Amino acid sequence: MSLDWIYFAISWILLTWHSAWDAIGVPVGAVIGTNFAWILSIVFLVVTVRVILFPVFVKQIKSQRAMQALQPKVKELQEKHKGDRETLQKEMMELYRKEKANPLMGCLPMFLQIPVFLGLFHVLKRLDPANQGKAKYGWLVSQFESASQAKLFTAPIAGKFGSTADELSRLGANGTTVKIIAGVLVLLMMATTYLTSRQMILKTGWAEDPQQRMIQRLMLYGIPLSLLISGSIFPIGVIIYWVTNNLFTLGQQQWVLRKFPPPVNATKTTTAATRNPVQPAKSGGLFGRGKSAPQVPVKAAEPKVAAPKPGAKPMNPKKSRPAKRQG
Known about the structure:
Number of helices: 11
Radius of gyration: 31 Å
Mean pLDDT: 80
Structural class: mainly alpha
Distance between the termini: 119 Å
Low-confidence stretches: 266-285, 287-296
């Protein structure tokens, strides 16, 4: 299957934004070693894609809420079919179908962005001055040459951490500078990828379903660590796209999670209170360092007064006092 339609679409969005920035006076030449018109074109490629995918993102949140609401039923099925994994899977799939909950919906926005990522990767990888197909995918030769010379702090957006000496020579770039800029961006890419997953888990909690929990762990730890290796082959422009996309996701998730707050799970709250009765609950936050909820002061228990036994004569406190001496 040809992916040319994706390359044409990505190229069209990039070139349209570049023309827009040029029209409003954003310098096309380098300022502080940076061609801001092309950098902003990549940033607003993210904005364009995320605006298109926003309805899908809202559906993702709603699906996750539905999955959370089903956790007590899922736990009952796990207890009922303990040791019978095949029956458990069938019962769970039937439960999801009946309640119209989709476990895979949580990954849909990410999967839909994969073609965009691949398209941008291919388009930026072609920005080699020695490339003979400069007018491909709707590009003009002048646009191609401008983009191939575009830089971020003197590092070309088509360069990468693992660029060869020949590639750097054709791009007119310094190898040390490219490695420093690419290395910093890869670390930012890893950190922001981790934070986007952590933000969601802090707000929604860990899933009870083992498969869902495994996916959460993969999203939280596996993907950021894999970027340490794969990031070396990404052009700097692609890493700019990824970091911008993560920052956009952090803001979008914060807004959506406030608009569609996770349901209160009474079971988890009770369990947490039982295991740690004196520990104040945290209000959350991106890093899990929210302020502790104020503790309610507990009144000291009043001493109990023993009731008189049935049939006993009432005591007169005045008689029990010792008589005063006269003198």
